[in-house]
Queue: 4 jobs
Job 1
Amino acid sequence: MPFFDKKEEECETGLDYWLYTLKYMEQLKTIPFKGQKALFERLEKLAKIVNLNKKERMEYEECLKVYRDNQNTWDYAIEKGYQEGVEKGLEDGLKKGMEQGLEQGLEQGLERGLEQGLFQGVRQVALNMKRKGMEVSAIMECTGLDAGTIAEL
């Protein structure tokens, strides 16, 4: 860097801007070429922090600490709220799912029970008809059962 001797207005490339800024950083109150790149703005902020006196630096550090604490608290609250929301959503979803499952299970159970009960009732009627000596064709016509089922009775 001792051989870099360009003036601010002579800098043409990004490298020239960097070298100029780095060489004269301690003497600059603000960084030149501000419009060139966002990196220079970041560098300017860092240079301002470095050039603060002890009291200003302590105040800056305290403000930064408060900002980071607040940001972390906010981030934690958002994360915690999200987790609680997911848990509550799962709990509610499971509860509703269980209720629907029970309803459907009861309905299907009743239907199957009725079907089984009716089928057993029809079989009992067919058996009674068979014991009375009725013909298989008449029993088939009355009960809707097939000849094989009636033969098994």
Job 2
Amino acid sequence: MSTPSAISPSPRGLAVVTGASVGIGRAASEALEKAGYAVIAASRRLTTAPSAATGITTHQLDVTDADSVAALQRTIADHPVPLTLLVNNAGIPTAAATIADSDLADWRGTYNTNVIGAVQTTQALLPHLIRNHGSVQFIGSTVGRVPYERGAAYAASKYALTALVQTLRLELNGQPVRITEIAPGMMRGDDAGGEFMRTRFHHDPAAIAAVYKGVEHPLVPEDIADCVVWCATRPPHVDIDLMEVRPLAQAAQHKVHRTSAN
């Protein structure tokens, strides 16, 4: 784990972001630090994690491994800044496949990371968040409400995540902790398509390009990072239950306006 050169006053407390090496997680870590949080950017891979700027600490974390999550819990317990925000962003996609032809290992792996991993991390850190009147955010997806062909394994994991969020909110009613789901629609990652699209289309550039053909401005990770910060910084009595976010060109999962420009 790398340690920042100095810990800022962090008036908003400590934020933990999982899956913070790329994409939404990385962008959210940097945006939260700018908004006044001390940040632990946690991910399996540290090579591309946010640089150790003041207020950001990197931490190696595998949300599917109980020992790894327990190590994070110990770090939080020893941290000089109280934990006030957990962003459950860690997740993995699956390759495009019909249900009839899909690999059950993909189903198990996706569910284990996207759902069980979120549960395991939340269980570990929830006592701190309740004690500090904090917030728990889950990065879901619009596919967690409307699926598409050849994406059932990933969609099923996001449907399950939605059920997790809604149930947790019911179970914690009356406790001083806020529960939020942010569900992005069509998004382009850090580079051409991002890791999600490279996995989904077996690193086929033509297939990835076809998804965005004619869509001039899909979402980018910084758009969702803005949403993470906005939800987290509402007054303590305001809980944003669900925020669905799409690019202007995407009216629904199946309806995307495409120009002939690209």
Job 3
Amino acid sequence: MDILEKIITDKRQEIAFKKQLIPTFQLEQSVLFERETVSIINNLQNNEIGIIAEHKRRSPSKQVINHNLNVFDVAQGYEKAGVCGMSVLTDGKYFGGSLDDLLLAKSSCNLPLLRKEFIIDNYQILEAKAYGADVILLIAAILTQKEIKTLSEFAKSLQLEVLLEVHNEAELQKSVMPSLDMIGVNNRNLKTFEVSLETSKMLSTLIPNDFLKVSESGISNVEAIKELKPFGYQGFLIGENFMKTDDPGESAGYFINQFSL
């Protein structure tokens, strides 16, 4: 089994357990469930640089990135830096995150929040809404075309925006549908973990203009963004580059200031 298959096998067990623990009606009664969501798309369309900054403690490819930071401080730092939105990893086993991280981020900033998770079930979308997310991530590599349609339409019914992540042309071709808002190109090869901005460049012409384009992974300097802007990208997801520092907010602020120079 490759790493994605392992994660999904574990995720199915996790969801089954959670459904027994917290029924859907309980999620729907959450204080945050009826709130108006904040649009990350509006922020990205009206910002010159378009940073979505991530909170990520570790990953299967990099192991520990940073376990010493408080989500509250990171969220406030990102907001002060002027990012367009914040991505919060909520997977526990492989990334060291939790839904409580999402809740804490929501309580500490007014940024639109993306729940970064391996979503395979509508239950996780209800969780996202109940814990403060404004946007969900769907990963084409782990979903069929029918599943992408079902999950994205359900998210839209809850006023959540949808970012669909692809790694190659085959994933993109099966995924394009009206219930998506953004298409993110992950520059990391899932088999080798190698990163190349050429992936974003190559797929850019195949993404219809109806969708906002986001580039993910491997964006470690301002030059990378300047390189990708002519290909139509308006959003740039950056996690590790900020999280490996002692002060991600300060690091994000410095990065954004560099872009203006």
Job 4
Amino acid sequence: MAKKQGKPVAQDRHFCDIAGKFKNNIYGTTKGQIREAVLKRDLDDLIHGYFANTPLKILDVGGGQGQLALYLADCGHQVTLLDVSAPMLELAQERAESSNLSESMTFIHAQLQDLPALDIGQFDLVLCHAVLEWIVEQQHALAILKSCLTPQGVLSLMYFNKAAQRLANMVYGNFDYVSNGLKVKQKVGLSPNQPLESEDVERWLNTLSLQTLSKTGVRCFHDYLRELDKAQDQFEALLSLELKYNKSEPYASIGRYTHLLLQIKE
């Protein structure tokens, strides 16, 4: 972490050095499987409904190893995947080649903040999932994402929900951690630097004239299980209940992540 006048200065977090850790610790777990299933359900509903099954021009910002980008390309859409991690981007390219999807995909090695200078145009659908919580200037990042949308475009935004992080730690009995504002002296490698309060996100979206089409909680039940082995042993039952309840309150607001579909107000 950089220092300014002797004090730590918050910095954006990148994952150029731990692509393999992401593959094993996130994408290969029940947490990752639920997240991917929820996002695919929400995006399928959006594409079949709002977009009436038309082929789309899609931008996946911070798309990592390309799970969703490859899925959407396989559904017939043109997808641009942008990520700051070269190792993750290489993994995505390899998967695209092995799946014969290279012609439907474009890969850009850059970070979200580079988008204005790249001048790659506007998109019908912009994805930004589990990225905002690693960025310091979050409201500015949202403004950049909005600028990438066509007038009728949709932003798919998923962010790490600080209220759910607080609730889960209370359930675990981590009272000192909660009292300390969910801060520790040394950050765990995959623990988000800048978890978001939903009230802040709502205020920023209102300032940017972005309105919500839908709200979903991601992992509304999984992260509160007392018997952790049930996530693996009874995964299908758990996933079914996540999908059944995660668009309804209060569950939509206590998911570890919050997934919003947003459009520009007319």
